Amino acid sequence: MEFNGLDEAGKALAEALKTNKTIAHLYLSCNRFDDETGIAFADALKINNTLAILDLSKNRLSGSTAKALGKALKANKGLRELNLSRNQVGDEGGKALAEALKTNKT
């Protein structure tokens, strides 16, 4: 679902991930997601342990999303790969993700 301009639909996808037990890989690069959508995915990752790969590269995500994802990764037990390349997560967002990696064992 790459290159589809799904910003508003992204929030609905994130909400659906909270109950989905089958999707293991989700590629959503280049969809113009903003931090509101990014944080919605972070909230879903706190609950969903089925998703193994999430690609959110080349969106409009900042440190706010990275911080939320960092918190989610501390609880998540399923995600194996998270791609945030070509976003603007910045130093603070990077630090939040690094901190999560200290406790995340997946």
Structural class: mainly alpha
* Sequence of secondary-structure elements: HEHEHEH
* Residue share in β-strands: 5-15%
Rg for CA atoms: 12 Å
Please estimate the helix content: 40-55%
Number of helices, where a helix is a run of at least 4 consecutive DSSP H or I residues: 4
Strand count, sense and barrel status of the largest sheet are: 3 strands, parallel
Uncertain regions: pLDDT < 50 for 5+ in a row? Answer: none
Produce a short descriptive summary:
This protein is mainly alpha-helical and 106 residues long. Helix content is 46%, strand content 8%.
Q: Which descriptors apply to this entry?
A:
single chain, mainly alpha, three-stranded parallel beta sheet, 4 helices, globular, 106 residues
Characterise this structure:
The protein has four helices and three strands. Helix 2 runs parallel beside helix 3. The chain is mainly alpha-helical and 106 residues long. It has helices spanning 7-17, 35-45, 63-75, 90-103, and strands at 25-27, 53-55, 81-83. The protein is globular.
Show the helix and strand layout.
Elements: H1 7-17, E1 25-27, H2 35-45, E2 53-55, H3 63-75, E3 81-83, H4 90-103
Helix pairs in contact: 1-2, 2-3, 3-4
